[in-house]
Write a structure and sequence with these properties.
The structure is a single chain. By secondary structure, the chain is an alpha+beta fold. The chain contains 4 helices and 7 strands. It has a single domain, classed as Aminopeptidase. The mean pLDDT is 93.
């Protein structure tokens, strides 16, 4: 039995640009539509506009194969999935709103690399914490990467029944 492996020729992490939103929206819909966590494209774009210097894409052979959207947000607060961002927050906390890797690249360490890039950027921009909401059973991944759960914090139902707010020091 032979197995065909896709050879990745060019992979890089870079800041997102306006040209990346089609790819980001497609990945986001693929990841979340079945779980009812998918957001409107305008909401996604508003989060990117709120802090372009803390949002990244994983580009693989010319296609968008992953992304991380992060923005300053007061600790223990989080974006409303049903609404675009109305304002930019000044906060020492950087909220990782979403991190998605294309299915064919999962399990290869790209999520950790995106998280590392985000953490280095957060430190350079004087953020002292990173928060996120673990959805879809991802709490073990985030715990393994140093995030601590805050189970006492009630979350909006739109994030799903098992969503957990988590944070860690930069």
């Amino acid at each position: 039995m032979s197995t065909t492996h896709r050879v990745v020729e060019d992979v890089r992490i870079r800041h997102l640009t306006d040209d990346d939103w089609d790819g980001i929206a497609t990945l986001e819909a693929d990841m979340y539509t079945d779980s009812a966590l998918s957001e409107e494209r305008s909401a996604l774009e508003s989060r990117g506009r709120a802090s372009p210097s803390t949002c990244f894409v994983l580009e693989c052979d010319g296609r968008i194969a992953g992304y991380a959207l992060a923005l300053p947000y007061p600790e223990f607060r989080y974006p409303d999935l049903a609404r675009p961002e109305g304002s930019v927050h000044r906060s020492s906390n950087l909220h990782l709103h979403d991190l998605v890797i294309a299915e064919d690249l999962r399990g290869r360490g790209w999520a950790k690399r995106l998280l590392h890039r985000l953490t280095m950027t957060a430190a350079a921009r004087s953020h002292d914490r990173i928060s996120l909401i673990a959805v879809g059973g991802s709490e073990p991944f985030w715990s393994a990467n140093g995030f601590k759960p805050h189970h006492e914090l009630g979350l909006a139902k739109s994030y799903g029944a098992n969503a957990v707010y988590m944070s860690r020091a930069v």
